Amino acid sequence: MADASQLEADLEALLQQEWFEPPADFVRDALITDLSVHEAAERDPVGWWEEQARALDWAQPWTRGLVDDDAPFYRWFEGGKLNLSHNCLDRHVAAGLGERVALHWHGEEGEIRTITYAQLLADVERCANALKARGVGAGDVVGIYLPMIPEVVVAMLACARIGAPHNVVFGGFSAESVHERMAFSNASALITVDGARRKGRTAPVKSEVDRVMDGLTHLETILVVRHTGVACEMRDGRDLWWDEALAAAAPECPAEPFDSEHPLFILYSSGSTAKPKGIQHTTGGYLTGIAWSFKHVFDLKPETDVYFCPADVGWITGHSYIVYGPLANGATSVMYEGAPDYPNQGIWWELCERYGVTIFYTAPTAIRACMKWGAELVQEHDLSKLRLLGSVGEPINPKAWAWYWLVVGGGRCPIVDTWWQTETGQMVITTLPGAQRMKPGSAGTPLPGMRASVVDEEGREVQRDTQGLLTLDRPWPGMLRTLYREPDRYVSGYWERFGAPTYLVGDASRQDHDGYFWVIGRVDDVINVSGHRLSTAEVESALVSHPKVAEAAVVGQSDEDTGQAICAFVTLRDEVTGDDAMALDLRDHVAHRIGKLARPKRIIWAGELPKTRSGKIMRRLLKDIAEGREIGDVTTLRDPDVMGQLTQAMRGRGDED
Q1: Domains of the chain
Q2: Boundaries of each Acetyl-coenzyme A synthetase N-terminal domain copy (predicted)?
C-alpha cells in the first residue's frame, strides 16, 4: 500500500461513496444472497423462529412457540427441553467432529493451547461433576471471575450442563464488585484464579477475593485455577484447586435436559453510577437467537473458517459470540488473553496470520486505536485469509469504517456493523453480508424476525431521516426475560413507557430513506445546545475525520449560555501538537462537516482516553471530569492513571472565544 499521504487520500475518496457492494466472490459462496429470508420471517415471525430452533437438538419438543399472555414476561418454546452444553459439545463429538479445534488459545506471553471439541467436552464433564460434588445443582448460581483463559469457557459450559445459572464478572472489575454480585445473586460457588496478567504485570486475584468475601455464608465453594503461580491462601472446607478438583471428579456427566425457559445466566450491566442491573437470559430462546445470528451474520463455514473476537467473555459479546454462538455452530475460534497493544501493537494481526483467521469481530474504539498506531502494523502481516469483518459495541464512524475496509480487509471483506445490547442477547440490526449493501456508519436493517422503529416522545413513528427513540416492536427469542430479583424494574425500565410489545431501547436513532438505521447513541448521549439536539457520535465522527486526529470522545457539559456545551477530548496523531491553532482548525473542521452549532466549545488534549480492558471508552468518567464532579469508579480501566492526566488537562482547557 502507498505511503501515509496516499492512504489519507484513498480514505477520503472512499468516504465519498454512500454504498459499498459486497464483493462478487463473497456473494457467490454466501449462505444468504437475497432478502427472501426477511420476507419469509415477516410473514410468520413466530413460525420462522420455530424453524430456526429446530436446527438445535431438543430432548423434548415445545408445544407453543411464543407465549405472550403475561407480557412483557414472554416465554419462548414452551414445554420444550434441551441442554445448551450438549448443543455446544456432545452433538458435535457424536457427529465425528471431536478432533476439530474448538479453541486456539494464545496467552499474552506467547503460551499456546490447542483444545479440540472432545477435549473441551471432557473438561466440561469433569468440571460439572466437581461442582455437583460440592452440592451445586440446578438453579444454584455460580459466580465466575476469570481472565481470558480456556477455563472460563469450561466453567460456563459446566454450569449450563447442570442447570446452574452462571454470573460472570468481568476480570477487570474490583473484588468489591464481585462481592456485590455474589451477594445479590446469592451465589453458592465462585470460580476464580490465583492471579491475572496484564501487559507484563501480574496481579493477585484470589487473595483480593478473600479480602471481601467474609460474611457471604451462602458462598460455600471457591474453585481456584492455577494460572500465574501467585501465592494465595486456601481455606479448608471452602477452597479447592481447579486441577485437583477436576482430576478427582468422575469423567462422565450426562447433559440433563432443562426447560426452554430455565435460567442460563445473569449478567450485570456496568458503566453507570446507578445500581447495576442483573439481566437474566434463559436457555432455548437465547441459544436459538445467537446460534442463527452467528452462523448467518458471519456467513460461517465451520469446516474452513477461523473466527477471532478479541473481546472479553465478561461482557455479552463474549457470552454470545465468543462462547455460545461459535460452539453451537461447531466453529474454530481464536481466544487471546491480553491487551491489543501487548506485547506489541500488531499482536492482533500477528494472531490473524498465525491461525489463518477468516472472520474478525471487534469494536470501533479498537479500530480507531489501530488507526492511531499505523497501517504499517497491519501491512506487516499476511491477512489474505480474512473474508469478513465485524464491528460491535458502539456506532462506527465512517472514517474508521473506511480504514477497516481498506487497510484490514483489503477492500474485499464485507463489514457487518452489528447493533445489539446485553438485554437483546443477540444481534438485532445489521446487514446480511451476502445479500445487502453496506453504508459506512449505518448498522443496516433489522435481522429477519426482528422489527424496529424510530418514534417520538409519545411513541408515534417519525418520518424517515428524523431523529427519535429506537424501539423494538415485537418479542424475539434471545431477549432478556427479566431483571434478576427486580421484575418491577424490568417493566418500568423497558416496557412501561410505550407498553408491551414495544421495547424501549434507550438509544437515539434515525431511519434513512433507504430503510437503514443509524444508531446515534444513548439518549443521554445527545447534547442539547441552545435547544438543538446534537449527537455525540456525530461530533466524534467529524473530529476523527480530521487527518491529524487519532481518537475523540465527546460529552455534554453544563453551560450558562446554551444549557449544554460540547466538550471534546481529543487524541492527536503522534507528530501533531495540541495548541490554540490546532483547536481552531478542529472547530472549523467540525463546523464544516456538521455546522457551526456543533463546534466543540472546549477541546481537551488527551494523550490517552479512559478505556476498559476490552477497549470501550468510559464516557461517564469524561463527563465527571467535564462537570468537575468526583470521579466515579475507575477499577475497570486499562490504565487508571489516565484520569489524573485528563483532570490536569481540564484545568488548563481552552475555551472557545
Answers
A1: 6-508 (3.40.50.12780), 530-655 (3.30.300.30)
A2: 37-88
